[in-house]
Design goal:
The complex is a heterodimer of chains A (139) and B (277). Chain A is an alpha+beta fold. Chain A is globular. In chain A, 19% of the residues lie in helices and 47% in strands. In chain A, the strands form 2 sheets. In chain A, strands 1-8-3-6 form a 4-stranded antiparallel sheet. In chain A, strands 2-7-4-5 form a 4-stranded antiparallel sheet, with no helix packed on it. Chain A has a single domain (41-138), classed as Jelly Rolls (Sandwich), CATH 2.60.120. Helix content of chain B is 62%, strand content 0%. Chain B contains 13 helices and no strands. By secondary structure, chain B is mostly helical. The chains are: A alpha+beta (139), B mainly alpha (277). Chains A and B meet through strand 1, strand 2, strand 4, strand 7 and strand 8 of A and helix 2, helix 3, helix 8, helix 10 and helix 11 of B.
């Protein structure tokens, strides 16, 4: 009985550590599924995020290509945000969802450099870190 | 207010028992962080990673088409005569990057023996760079399936996209941090060379604005190849690459539209590096 309760409590608790592998696995599936719709990958990477903190990536994007910044958070994420900033620090685009797999799509009017920002806006209760993966895909 | 006062009076005046414990109130739920993180440009510049900065050659092909030029970059790839035995780090990395770009651009169209030869050359470079057993086995497996006609070219493109954009950037190359940027530089240089030729041959010079003005990308490569302060003389390839990148930076940073002379310059300085490989 104790063992069952202990296992149940373990299973219902948020993971103690950020699980980048889980986030990457989720994103990999999305990326490869996207090939059937004409998307192709530039790069995919993963990271650990602390609650309320960000991780940013410099990206150069070609005019008139369609881009999708796809992400996945692990089970510790309640609300992951993805934002695109220009080099002057203005937000060009952001996701509006409250989930752990947000994405944004963007077709740059001119070739340029941008910052992709991942933001752990809200982890699940009891967690303060999370694993997240980000991919830049285009078509 | 009246009701509350009355209630207090009633409770205080009519009971001799100890006042009841206040009902437990739920702790307020922890607030989510603000909608927009506090960031400024200096912080973004300082903290941003460059792992997603460089476009892939296939992405460049897409951008060429989006700019209105139908030329297939794969048709412009020359018959490179590279020294595949040159195993110094910078030479092997830049050369492998060029070859990887050629594989990506031709994976859907090249005849099997030609493609296998290119993959062999990439594999040799990966060995010279200490890419490790996994990448060698992966490339062996791909070659076997290609020879057995057991993989579609669409699937193969996905596999090489993953190798180029996800797997290789994660390899450690014996702790040599410059290997990945130099491989990327080789791929980008090949792409820039092909694009300059494609745009020059077209009636759409405006496409050069879209495809060749990428000073941030060039800066990233310069950061890794610069030889100022190096404790030994740079390899010939490194020295030429640095010179070429500085010239490409000047072209990419121009505020006025690029012209034929700029396209000529891009072709010339990229050729100068390719000739040393």
């Amino acid at each position: 009985m104790l063992t069952t309760a202990f296992l149940a409590s373990l299973l219902s608790s948020p993971p103690a550590i950020a699980d980048e592998a889980e986030a990457s696995s989720c994103l990999r599936t999305k990326v490869w599924d996207g090939y059937s719709d004409g998307w192709a990958i530039r790069t995919m990477t993963s990271t650990e995020l602390t609650s309320g903190k960000t991780r940013s990536y410099l990206v150069s994007l070609y005019a008139d290509n369609e881009y999708r910044i796809a992400t996945c958070g692990d089970a510790s994420v309640k609300n992951l945000d993805v934002l695109l900033y220009d080099t002057k620090g203005n937000i060009v685009m952001r996701d509006e969802t409250t989930d752990r797999e947000p994405f944004i799509e963007f077709k740059p009017p001119a070739t340029g450099t941008y910052y992709v920002v991942l933001y752990l806006r809200e982890p699940v209760e009891g967690a303060d870190k999370a694993g997240a993966a980000m991919a830049v895909v285009y078509r | 207010m009246f009701m509350l006062s009355l209630l207090s009076l009633l409770m205080g005046g009519c009971s001799t028992e100890a006042p009841p414990e206040p009902a437990p109130t739920e702790a307020p739920a922890e607030q989510a962080h603000p909608e927009t993180p506090e960031l400024d440009v200096a912080q973004l510049e300082a903290d941003s990673e460059e792992v997603a900065l460089v476009p892939s050659p296939v992405e460049t092909q897409k951008a060429l088409e989006a700019a209105g030029i139908d030329t297939k970059l794969s048709d412009l790839i020359p018959k490179h005569k590279f020294d595949l035995d040159a195993d110094s780090l910078d030479h092997a990395a830049v050369r492998t990057g060029v070859l990887l770009a050629d594989v990506l651009l031709t994976v859907k169209s090249a005849k099997t023996p030609v493609l296998i030869k290119r993959i062999d050359a990439v594999q040799k470079g990966m060995d010279q760079l200490n890419g490790g057993k996994d990448i060698r086995l992966t490339l062996d497996d791909i070659k076997e399936r290609l020879q057995a006609d057991a993989v579609t070219r669409d699937d193969l493109l996905k596999e090489f996209d993953e190798l180029s954009g996800v797997v290789i950037p994660e390899l450690e190359f014996n702790g040599q941090e410059r290997v990945v940027p130099l491989i990327e530089a080789g791929s980008w240089l090949e792409g820039a060379n092909l694009v300059a030729r494609a745009v020059k041959d077209s009636d759409n010079k405006k496409a050069a604005e879209t495809l060749l003005k990428a000073p941030t990308v060039v800066d990233y490569f310069i950061e890794y190849v610069k030889t100022d302060g190096a404790d030994k003389a740079p390899e010939a390839v490194t020295k030429k690459l640095e010179e070429s990148l500085l010239e490409l930076k000047a072209v990419a940073s121009k505020t006025e539209p690029l012209d034929d002379a700029d396209l000529e310059k891009v072709e010339q300085v990229t050729n100068a590096v390719l000739a040393l490989l």
